[in-house]
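User: Here's a chain of 536 residues. Predict its fold as tokens.
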Amino acid sequence: MTTESPPLRPAVAPLLALVGLLAAELAVIGVTYKHLIRFTCLENWPAAVCGGASTFMVSVYAMAAALALVALLIPEAVRQLAAEAGLRRAGLLPNLAGFAAMMAPLPLLAEGAGTAVLPVVLACWGMGILLGATGALLMVAPLARWRVFLAAQGGRFALAAVAGLLAPILAMQVRPLWRLETMADLTFSAVAGLIRLLGYEVAADPVAKTIGAAGFSISVAPVCSGIEGMGLVAVFVTLFLGLFRHELRFPAALLLYPIGIVASAALNILRITLLLVIGLNGHPGLAVGGFHSHAGWLSFTLLSLGLILAARSLAVFARLPRPAAQAPRLPPFLADPMVAGILPFAVFMASALLASTFSASPETVYPLRVLAMAGVLALFLPHLRSLGWRVDPLALGLGVGIGLLWALTGPAPGPGSLPAQGTLAGAGLALWILSRVIGTALLVPVIEELFFRGYLLDRLAPPGSRRPWRVLLAVAVSSAAFAVLHDRWLAAGLAGVAFALLALRSRNLTDAILAHAAANAVIAGVALATGNWGLI
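Assistant: Prediction complete.
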């Protein structure tokens, strides 16, 4: 009977020594060439050579970063590769020879040397890079291990290397696009062309960047260039790739960055065009008061959902499923706890965005939002019944305390504190108040806890997590995300921490739901009694 030998693990000390050696070589080369010799490249060599050398070095660093990113995504393969890493002679000698070749041209570099020494210098640098890199690779692993590794992982590493080398070059080419004025010009031209394509007669001033007709016009300022949306998409994609890295195919998943950024720019152009259409059709108040303020978030939400859908359903991004004989049976869609955590929250957020975008008085349509929330929760009643409901005294008492503190430290009532005041009366106003209380005290706590504590907290710190830092990170991230959803972010963040600790204490989500519902019921009761609806 034979037993499998455990997988080899690289020793830490040899790896640290190797990293230290390479860092020291790069530091010596950089300091020597930049500070210890008197040689001005542009005064001796063509600008193309100087710029090309600088860009090449940046590309090398970018390639190293891209390769490191891919290596982090396949840790087991990298551990197997580097099991024999160290300062072995087979790699150390060529590496040191490469370092010597890089330093060899120093005596030739002096002011006034001109282009006569250029061929020799470039030859030394080329040989030095080749020998140094070859030696470093051989110190990471012998040829036999590299053959096995590249046979399995060579394709993705080759793509990462090419992407890293080209990234700085492409960034230099598109750098003018990232100037706000340039982006605003492009956005203005696209909006003007699209609105005219739709058949509207408008006057467009490219200098002032104003566009419109009699009675309604807009200015496409630099802040309307779409840079903020592109930045948000980049952050979202980064978080998504980090959270779902085990379910995605790399480096193909990195294409979500350019796809998301281009789509964000296109949606920004569409948003401004629709703003014009709404205003030109006799609804300037809705265009400026509602659509302008919230359409950006609506488009960001839709784009984010689209990127998630593409990443999870397209084979180019998602990992291929295992063979049918080994694949676990997935639960039905409406019985999937992950869906139960995400979908109701998505409907909740989408209803808020739609109300703010397409209504000049979004609070007046809150009863419709309550119907949407109740409808989506009804789809998950079997899952909700299975949560193990109970009345926990600690959760109930903590929730009441949070609600009282929120109400006591909230803003004082002011004129027009009832959002629906002036537009609703009688039965319509009574329906609005009833809907607001039901939504605040019953529906919102369930929806938010399903997402923030039932999905996000468990995703970051699954049951059984034994690493304290991971649990602390899960509490911090879920509570911070919860705080962002509220105007009073500090108080909301502290409340989120309390709800998270309740959920972790028993690993029973209903404790957090009960505390959240008790807090919101107290707040709704105070708002109802005092008319201070600004508390909610």
